[in-house]
């Protein structure tokens, strides 16, 4: 079973990896965006890590809802409300159980990803974070490692796509040939989940 400590480790591992990869995320957001994705998420997850240390929520649901709230209130870009919604809705779906199964987490994440699709209007193939998140949730039923691999593959597969949502869509066909920054950061989120499970 996965307890609050596991979820805090997941968020801490995400913050650390966003920190390490911030320059790469911003570089990906340069040709098809406004070169702020790395700094947006760095600011957001730094606030998440600080809030979790200060408040130390004691259920998985409370950890993720607090993390989501922090992202919404600290990230100005489109990705803040979208990732904030993902974590808040996933946390809400987990309820107030002291620990949850991998299956419950997978189910809750699916609810969270659906909320992101509803908020942003993106579907698979639109060259957004959804292209990493949907295959990841589909693969999580198998294992955390499978979820991580599917997210990574989904992020790489955004390169030949034309963006139909978000800032990159303004470029039309010129968005083709670049990996989507949000799908790339979603792969980091799933890699951090697998990392937390390995610890
Ligand atoms: P902004 O585009 O406001 O500068 P960021 O650079 O932080 O915000 O985030 C850009 C990422 O957000 C994109 O690479 C994409 O993956 C994701 N994104 C943008 N719009 C949407 C949307 N409508 N639905 C899902 N994801 C989106
Ligand atoms: Mg941007």
TrEMBL record:
GO terms for cellular component: cytosol. The keyword Manganese does not apply. SMART domains: Dak2. NCBIfam families: dha_L_ycgS. This is Dihydroxyacetone kinase subunit L. The keyword GTP-binding does not apply. One of its GO terms (molecular function) is glycerone kinase activity.
């Amino acid at each position: 079973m996965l307890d609050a400590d596991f979820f805090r480790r997941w968020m801490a591992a995400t913050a650390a990896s966003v920190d390490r990869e911030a320059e790469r995320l911003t570089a990906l957001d340069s040709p098809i965006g406004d070169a702020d994705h790395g700094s947006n998420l760095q600011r957001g997850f730094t606030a998440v890590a600080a809030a979790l240390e200060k408040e130390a929520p004691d259920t998985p649901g409370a950890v993720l809802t607090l993390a989501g709230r922090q992202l919404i209130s600290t990230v100005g870009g489109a990705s803040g409300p979208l990732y904030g919604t993902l974590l808040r809705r996933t946390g809400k779906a987990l309820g107030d159980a002291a620990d949850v199964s991998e299956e419950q987490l997978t189910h809750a994440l699916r609810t969270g990803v659906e909320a992101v699709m509803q908020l942003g209007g993106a579907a698979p193939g639109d060259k957004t974070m959804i292209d990493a998140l949907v295959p990841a949730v589909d693969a999580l039923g198998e294992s955390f490692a499978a979820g991580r691999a599917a997210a990574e593959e989904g992020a790489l597969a955004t390169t030949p796509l034309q963006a139909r949502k978000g800032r990159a869509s303004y470029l039309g066909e010129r968005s083709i040939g670049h990996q989507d920054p949000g799908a790339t950061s979603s792969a980091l989120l799933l890699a951090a989940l697998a990392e937390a499970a390995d610890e």
